[in-house]
Specification:
Layout: H1 5-16, E1 21-23, E2 26-37, E3 42-50, E4 55-56, H2 58-69, E5 75-81, E6 86-87, H3 91-100, H4 103-107, E7 109-111, E8 117-119, H5 120-123
Parallel strand pairs: 5-7
Antiparallel strand pairs: 1-2, 2-3, 2-5, 3-4, 5-6, 7-8
């Protein structure tokens, strides 16, 4: 499906979260995320990547903010991106969204490029539950 003006604003919000910087053993904020919850609230996050393999995706960071600052568990729309491009969520983040609320499979829009969005079920078609 084509993007709306609101989707493009969400992409810009995610990009505003990108502030890539090196730390002692890794880097922070190379990827930003913005999501709109089903209730219409905006939540953001940024990734952190530590060289030992521990880290947190930008999507998980934004979802964590949603859980920490509201009672929402349904996601209307979500996008993650670097300064250069929009990127689909990794498999772990897809699974987190599906496990958070089963309705997310059918209802959550994932912005996967500068021109396209799909439902979560299209990125995670074979639900194992």
């Amino acid at each position: 499906m084509e993007l709306t003006k609101e989707d493009k604003k969400l992409i810009n919000k995610a990009k505003s979260m990108v502030d890539k910087r090196k730390i002692y053993d890794g880097e922070l904020s190379a990827v930003g995320c913005a999501l709109i919850s089903k209730s219409g609230k905006l939540f953001t996050g940024a990734n952190w990547d530590l060289w030992c393999g521990v880290g947190f995706c930008a999507e998980s960071s934004a979802i964590s903010n949603m859980i920490s600052h509201s009672r929402d568990i349904e996601i209307e729309t979500i996008v993650a991106c670097s300064k250069e491009r929009v990127m689909p969520p990794c498999g772990r983040c897809r699974e987190v969204m599906a496990l958070l609320d089963k309705r997310n499979l059918e209802n959550t829009w994932i912005i996967v490029s500068d021109t396209k969005k799909v439902k979560l079920k299209e990125l995670l078609p074979y639900d194992w539950r």
